[in-house]
Amino acid sequence: WQQPTAVRLVTPNPTSATQLNNPNAMSGQGPDGNRPVTALTFDFIGGGPLQLWQFLLRLLIDNRCQHLIRWTGNGWEFKLLDPNEVALRWGLQKNKQRMNYEKLSRALRYYYSKNIIKKTAGKRYVYRFVCDIQSLLGYTPNELFEACRLRPQNDEDDE
After folding, report:
1. Is residue 88 within a helix (H) or strand (E), and if so which, with residue range?
2. Section 113-135 average pLDDT
3. Distance of CA 66 to the CA centre of its chain
4. β-pairing verdict for 41-44 and 7-10
5. Between residues 118 and 135, which one has the greater pLDDT?
6. What DSSP designation does 90 have?
7. What is the pTM of this model?
8. Is 76 exposed, middle or buried (0-12, 13-18, 19+ CB in 10 A)?
9. In this structure, are residues 128 and 77 in contact, taking their beta carbons and an 8 Å threshold?
10. For the chain: N or C, fewer Cβ within 10 A?
């Protein structure tokens, strides 16, 4: 595993790509300073095939996917709210029609020994990025939540 050296946040409109350190991105404004950012995603600079942890990070940063996967508000911890749908989308991304949560969770276990993602003990479908995501993204968790207009999943939100 080789950690990318840079990430670029982009708005859904491909003509308005913005760097992470753009001060307008932090304020929730579009690159023109007026139009609010409705959703952000990111591209890894350096290429190569999309890895599962990168795919999960993309979903986590996209506020349109908060019904599937969401930050817990506890650092870089996240919860799969609809693990089967997340697995299905990963399968579509990798052209593997038989993907399910069991296979996805097996793939996630590969990252444990690589110190990329770890399972949060005692919590179902809850994981944490243990690699230096903050340096990679250039945001603290709370700054990222604000920039991407994300609402972390609180314990009282659990079923």
Report:
1. helix 83-93
2. 96
3. 10
4. antiparallel
5. 118
6. H
7. 0.74
8. buried
9. yes
10. C
Q: Is 8 helix (H, G, I), strand (E, B) or coil?
A: strand
Burial 5-22 (b: 16+ CB within 10 A, else e): eebebbbeeeeeebebee
How much is the pLDDT for 33? 47
Other beta carbons less than 10 A from residue 84's beta carbon: 14
Q: Which residue is it, tokens 């995603």?
A: 41
**DSSP secondary structure letter of residue 19:** -
Q: How confident is the model at residue 42 (pLDDT cuts 50, 70, 90)?
A: low
C-beta of residue 86 within 8 angstroms of C-beta of residue 59? yes
Q: Tokens for 144, please give them.
A: 């990222």
Q: What is the pLDDT of residue 21?
A: 37
- The secondary structure of residue 29, as a DSSP letter, is B
- Dist CA 92 CA 118 (whole Å): 24
If you search the block for the tokens 């276990």, which residue do you land on? 109
